[in-house]
Design a protein that fits this description.
single chain, mainly beta, Immunoglobulin-like, 27-stranded antiparallel sheet, 13-stranded mixed sheet, hydrolase activity, hydrolyzing O-glycosyl compounds, carbohydrate binding, Hydrolase, Carb-bd_dom_fam9
């Protein structure tokens, strides 16, 4: 098996070196726009009537990215840029009749693909990997984000900038003023240039277009396809930038605990916590930022979206806390999605061993230094300290210190060589050996990683090796992998191989399985109809496959899955697919494939017989449909039916049915009403367990103005017998300063007659009031 692993690795590495010959992209120097210094004061009113705007160069002739990349956009855009000592100004005329406006809501940081939008992408260091994005829609709602990995965008970056929009019958005009303090850049001797691109999305016309063309197999924010913004006069040297963001919060919390074994009600507890803390943002250099947090509070963060859990392994839930989301591409993308050496949710969140519920861990303070040292070097250092937690019943979570350090070196045209080191130190002082049982004194992970992106973005690869260190100091504590991808308008090929050592441990990471090696092998063939009659209804169609195989370190197959699917989409953005799938699972320990123990009702799993060790196979057929976002009423639906954990030799047969979907209605421009649903039916032959699970989640997001927002999220989950309500009212009373009122409640979703529990019996609830204030020093 080792020989096979190294043979596959050598083949992939050879292919990587073969493809690592950067090809020059077409028209690389054709798209240039000069940015002039304004000779007159600019009034931000959406009129563009100052004399300086009349002499500014124009970026026009926007080219389509979707649905086709072979023609100019019908709804064109004209963009101009200026600057003065404090701001970069962007003015754009976006041609679009009022009747076509599509806006999800008036809430800031709206989700991509839900509204018409004009975007500006700046690559200030010209590394074609990292950049800033500023966007607004026809109603003047703002969104800002950071671009990473060449084309991915994170909208969790908050900062100050200004804009005004003026609507007309056949076009709308946007005028932006972006403070130089908001950006990170360097001024060099001689003429300065930045890379820039401008984009549009018009939902009802299904037109995504950019100034410099971006092929349709890439996202429009791809920095490999940016033009040049040439400074006629150098921009001002960045000055000091210090922001303080204090907060204050008060809350009332009430818990209704029950004995885990017999569900007998225990005395209720009430708590009235109050908190005061502060965040700070300090520009250490023009391109290096220091973020500090003292006694952080994340009470305004929306609860996790629940899922039906049928897995034997830990499920991944994304990070939602603002402090950890900023620059997360620098810290959180090392490794593969299922083998992350650093996962920020390990900090400040834990599972209570007495109740089984997830709870917050108090964070005393933290610091993060991140940014660029120069054009080639990027660094990040973060340190967080948490308090000790008393769970009761003589159970504790030790205080801990978390550190992570990363460094990236740009290579070739837009590739990187990176290193990471993660350290967790538990503080065992004032704790007995019994109280610290199950905890390691420390855990450390270090590794190197090479990410390759070709100049035209068609080829990409990732290679890494990580090594963990713990007090046990056991052998085979490393993880290594290599991935390669090829993206073409008509072909997408991906292949990856990964090995995770038996004793690889990442206590601050996400590694559900160890002692395995795994192969990933997705591929797609995408075709476009040549007939114009067919093209009216079908934009693209094709065939694809998704699959992976998991083996133990001796070569025994543990898991495998293969899906083959046909798909078709139209120019409006709707898509339909039909799939056939096969899966194999080797159970190395007995397992209940319904995970009935997730329900607090002891009767649900008291007599459950788990499947014995052995090999199981499943096959299924699936079809689904996703409608276009251009419609006010839109949604998606999927149906999957087939065998489930079947072993005919042992006489074990299972059947499964999965229905999943969502429906949403856009009440423009005030908000969106939606409903997510998931139905799971598993029928196993006797004496094994059969279940029917419902997971239903209505949601409403309303914006009463550009500064007052309300959202409420309801989740009804029969697998965990839990109903959750999470409601949040937000008032942005000044730029990046907010007041939040948050209500959270958990109830039993269904009655448990044998234990005298009725539906809607409360579990816990909380009401939180929090205010944050952004202060520039």
């Amino acid at each position: 098996m080792k020989k096979l692993y190294f043979t596959v690795g050598a083949i992939l590495l050879g292919m990587n070196l073969l493809f690592a010959q950067d090809s020059k992209t077409q028209d690389e120097d054709k798209y240039n726009i000069h940015i002039k210094k304004s000779t007159t004061p600019i009034k931000l009113d959406g009129l563009l009537d100052e004399d300086s705007w009349k002499t500014a160069e124009v970026a026009k002739n926007f080219f389509l990215n979707r649905p086709y990349d072979s023609s100019f956009a019908q709804l064109q855009t004209e963009v101009k840029v200026l600057f003065d000592d404090n701001f970069i100004y962007v003015g754009a005329v976006c041609y679009e009749p009022r009747s076509l406006y599509t806006v999800a809501s008036l809430k800031r940081d709206f989700e991509g693909g839900t509204s018409d939008v004009f975007t500006v992408n700046f690559d200030t260091f010209k590394d074609k990997l990292n950049g800033f994005q500023f966007a607004t829609n026809p109603y003047g709602v703002q969104r800002e984000g950071l671009i990473f990995n060449g084309e991915e965008t994170s909208n969790f970056w908050d900062n100050k900038w200004y804009s005004q929009v003026k609507q007309h019958d056949d076009f709308w005009v946007v005028e932006m003023a972006i403070p130089f303090k908001t950006l990170r850049y360097k001024v060099t001797e001689g003429q300065n240039t930045w890379r820039v691109n401008f984009g549009r999305n018009v939902l009802k016309k299904n037109e995504i277009s950019t100034w410099r063309p971006v092929p349709r197999n890439f996202r429009p924010a791809n920095l490999a396809f940016a033009g040049n913004m040439i400074w006629d006069e150098n921009p001002p040297k960045p000055g000091a930038n210090v922001s303080l963001i204090p907060f204050v919060s008060v809350a009332t919390e009430k818990d209704f605990p029950r004995n885990e074994s017999d569900l007998k009600a225990l005395p209720t507890t009430s708590n009235f916590p109050a908190g005061v803390g502060m965040d700070a943002k300090i520009a250490v250099t023009p391109s290096l930022n220091l973020d500090l947090t003292v006694n952080p509070d994340f009470s305004q963060v929306e609860v996790d979206k629940q899922v039906t859990n049928l897995s034997r392994f830990e499920l991944f839930f994304p990070e939602r806390r603002q402090f950890f989301l900023e620059n997360n591409d620098l810290f959180g993308t090392f490794g593969f999605p299922d083998t992350r050496p650093f996962f920020s949710r390990r900090i400040g969140i834990t599972r209570n061993p007495n109740t089984g519920n997830t709870q917050r861990v108090p964070i005393l303070a933290g610091a993060r230094l991140s940014g660029k040292l120069n054009d080639d070097w990027r660094i990040g250092v973060m340190n967080m300290q948490t308090r000790k937690v008393n769970f009761g019943e003589d159970k504790y979570l030790p205080a801990a210190n978390y550190s992570v350090a990363v460094v990236q070196r740009k290579l070739l045209n837009r590739s990187t060589l990176g290193g990471i080191f993660v350290n967790k130190e538990n503080d065992f002082s004032n704790l007995t050996a019994e109280q610290t049982a199950g905890y390691r004194k420390f855990n450390r992970v270090g590794g190197l990683e090479f990410n390759y992106y070709s100049k035209d973005s068609r080829f990409q690869s990732e290679s890494y090796y990580h090594q963990s260190f713990s007090p046990e100091n056991k052998k085979d504590a490393g993880s290594a992998a290599h991935f390669m991808g090829y993206s073409h308008p008509n072909v997408e090929l991906n292949l990856g191989v990964q090995r995770i050592g038996e004793n690889y441990r990442a206590d601050v990471g996400f590694v559900p399985r160890t002692g395995i090696w795994q192969i990933y092998r997705p591929a797609n063939i995408i075709l476009n109809p040549k007939s114009k009659k067919v093209a009216k209804y079908i934009n693209a169609y094709g065939i694809g496959t998704e699959g992976s195989d998991v083996f133990d370190l001796k070569g025994k197959r543990l898991d495998g899955e293969t899906n083959v699917f046909l798909f078709a989409n139209n120019s409006a953005g709707s898509e339909v697919y039909l799939a056939k799938g096969w899966s194999f699972t080797h159970l190395f320990a007995s397992f209940d494939p319904t995970n009935a123990s997730d329900n607090p009702n002891p009767d649900n799993f008291k007599n459950v017989v788990e499947l014995p060790v052995g090999d199981y196979r499943s096959n299924f057929i699936s079809f689904g449909y996703t409608s276009s976002n251009r419609n006010d009423l839109n949604g998606s639906f999927s149906y999957t039916k087939g065998d489930y954990f079947t072993n005919k030799v042992k006489g074990i047969e299972g059947k499964s049915l999965f229905l999943e979907g969502s429906i949403g209605y856009r009440y423009q421009p005030y908000g969106v009403f939606g409903l997510d649903f998931n139905y799971t039916q598993i029928d196993m032959s006797k004496p094994y367990n059969s279940v029917k699970y419902w997971l239903v989640g209505p949601r409403a997001e309303l914006s009463f103005s550009k500064s007052v927002f309300f959202s409420t999220f309801f989740q009804y989950n029969t697998q965990t017998n839990n109903t959750n309500i999470n409601s949040r009212l937000q008032w942005r009373f000044r730029p990046v300063s907010d007041i939040f009122l948050v209500y959270t409640d958990n109830y039993f979703a269904e009655s448990i007659p044998n234990y005298y529990i009725k539906a809607w019996t409360p579990k816990n609830r909380a009401l939180i009031l929090k205010m944050t204030y952004w202060l520039n020093v």
